[in-house]
């Protein structure tokens, strides 16, 4: 009888021990889950913090980054760096000596073979191989060390960039009027009130041809052509911005039968073009799918 009681007691203790072990395991599991959850929360918070800091750094860098368009195919990073350093050094609006050029990136090289891989584009940039030949337009991004140099750098908008380094630059030979703007602007700096829209442009046209055709109507501030994002070819449309709205009026009224590159160009006010686009439900008239590369 005593042996049976002892066996029952031992069995009860064994059951209690197992139950206790299971309870401890459950507690450990809960604590582990809570700890893991806390770690996940910490990781998530840290990740969000890292993302916020990355966005802040990228935004700060974008605020001092300049877009440079309509660059000739022969331009080099060193040439652009010298140009912007000189502009920062000689401008009265940037007397500080600590503002300089941090980096220069040139884009727009399209391999002759039509390849779009990173390696193919890199080779095309190094070897100066372009699908559109010598008339191909490059773009660049110039990062300054400080936002204070932006006003001085913007004075280079419309600057004639020539391959002649030893003699005074004149608007002849192998050169381009470059376009300089701030990358951080959400909208283009083009002023619609003094700009015109161009249609039916030749696919082989370049900015200088358009500028030469319309300079008779007044001082031109900017010329932009819509280009294919892969090949860099002109999509047949573009814009011209004048220094005064009256010049845009003259251009629209006086451009009947005006030819550029052997084709009669369609000219209208940019505002009228935008209203027509809205009425058609956003149809871009053949200019969609591209982007401004110069």
From TrEMBL:
InterPro entries on file: Nucleotide-bd_a/b_plait_sf, RBD_domain_sf, RRM_dom, SLIRP/GR-RBP-like
Start and end residues of each RRM domain: 64-185, 194-272
UniProt keywords, alphabetically: RNA-binding
Biased composition (Acidic residues): 33-43
GO MF term set: RNA binding
Renumbered residue ranges of the record's region Disordered: 1-55
Domain of life: Eukaryota
UniProt feature, compositional bias: Basic residues: 1-12
The keyword RNA-binding belongs to this UniProt entry's keyword annotation: yes
Gene3D superfamilies on file: 3.30.70.330
Ranges of compositional bias, category Basic and acidic residues: 13-32
Protein name per its UniProtKB record: RNA-binding protein 34
Species of the source: Schistocephalus solidus
């Amino acid at each position: 009888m005593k042996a049976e009681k002892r066996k029952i007691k031992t069995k009860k203790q064994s059951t209690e021990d197992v139950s206790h072990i299971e309870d401890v395991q459950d507690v450990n599991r809960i604590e582990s889950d809570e700890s893991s959850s806390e770690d996940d929360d910490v990781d998530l918070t840290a990740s969000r913090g890292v993302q916020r800091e990355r966005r802040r750094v990228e935004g700060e860098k974008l605020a001092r980054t300049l877009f440079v368009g309509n660059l000739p195919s022969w331009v080099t990073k060193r040439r652009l760096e010298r140009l912007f350093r000189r502009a920062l050094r000689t401008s009265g609006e940037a007397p500080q000596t600590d503002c300089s050029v941090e980096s220069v990136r040139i884009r727009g090289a399209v391999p002759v073979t039509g390849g779009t891989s990173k390696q193919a584009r890199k080779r095309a940039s190094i070897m100066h191989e372009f699908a559109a030949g010598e008339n191909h337009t490059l773009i660049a991004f110039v990062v300054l060390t400080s936002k204070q140099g932006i006003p001085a750098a913007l004075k280079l908008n419309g600057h004639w960039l020539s391959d002649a380094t030893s003699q005074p630059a004149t608007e002849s030979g192998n050169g381009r009027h470059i376009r300089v703007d701030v990358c951080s602007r959400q909208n283009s700096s083009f002023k619609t009130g003094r700009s015109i829209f161009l249609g039916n442009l030749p696919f082989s046209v370049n900015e200088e041809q358009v500028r030469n055709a319309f300079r008779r109507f007044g001082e031109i501030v900017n010329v932009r052509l819509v280009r294919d994002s892969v090949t860099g070819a002109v999509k047949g449309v573009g814009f011209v911005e004048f220094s005064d709205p009256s010049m845009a009026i003259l251009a629209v009224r006086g451009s009947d039968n005006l030819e550029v590159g052997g084709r009669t160009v369609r000219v209208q006010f940019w505002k009228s073009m935008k209203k027509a686009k809205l009425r058609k439900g956003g149809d871009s008239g053949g200019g969609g799918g591209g982007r401004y590369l110069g």
